[in-house]
Amino acid sequence: MHTQTSTLTRAALRGAAVAACFAAASAHAITVKVKVENVSASDGLWFTPVFFGFHDGSFDTFDPGLPAPTAIEAVAEQGDASGLVAAISGTAGAKSNVLMQDGSGAPPGVLFAPGESNYFTIDLDSMYNRYLSFASMLLPSNDAFFGNDMPTDYELFDIHGNFKGYQEINLFGSSIWDAGTELNDFMGAPFSPLGGVSTDTMGSVSLLGQAGLDAFNGAAQATGNNLSSSLMASDPIARISIQQVPDSTQYIGFMGAIALLGFRYVTRKRMGTEAAPES
Q1: Quick one: residue 255, left, alpha or beta (phi over 0 = left, psi -120 to 50 = alpha)?
Q2: pLDDT at 64 over 60
Q3: Global confidence as pTM
Q4: CB atoms within 10 A of CB 138
Q5: pLDDT tens-digit profile of 141-165?
Q6: 86, 69 Cβ separation under 8 angstroms
Q7: pLDDT tier at 136, thresholds 50, 70, 90
Q8: Nearest CA to 30 among 148, 107, 116, 123?
Q9: Strand 144-147 and strand 50-55: pairing?
């Protein structure tokens, strides 16, 4: 009876160790940390909460030279990312997050003022969340935003499902898009002290360019300050970084393997003791 119980116990422990090893080996999701920083000059641009979408490469936010989709128009004019969240929900396995400033900075706290940052963590699947898309409105503006037009611009996992490691996306004045949906006169723009009513236009999405950037020079902010008098295409605006959070399943798998080896050693030792003749 004792021998049978010991055998069953050893089998159960061995099975648990094997299960831990296989569970760790079969896990294909990883946790990543996504951080956003406003790296504009102290008198530079602000931006709204940032939309992030993680998808299989089939989710397209906009196309240069074509009219802005409704979801991008909402981001570019009002900083409203709900349309993009709804749109990406129709992509199989896709995930999204809208990152706000944590409220510790200048009011209103959800906006990213120069020097402010925040981050989030998210579990990603290498098959369904291989690529990254993002978008955010720049302030003060009528319809200026940053984002990536190509769905496969930023690859987080390679074709074999391996995480490609730390990535840093640096955005500059040259990265700013004009949605082409409003006249760029700052009238009626969110948080602009000019007030008035915005004027709708029927343009297409295009890079703002230096001529467009010149329109920002000296523009008034809601805070009472003015923008830098010389916003250039080479000026840094935002930084997005992506890195893997240490994976606890690797530790579990390692400990499971150690436990399995230990159980085998103890089992063999006990079996040798039980098989030895009595003196």
Answers
A1: alpha
A2: yes
A3: 0.79
A4: 26
A5: 999 999 999 999 999 999 999 999 9
A6: no
A7: very high
A8: 123
A9: unpaired
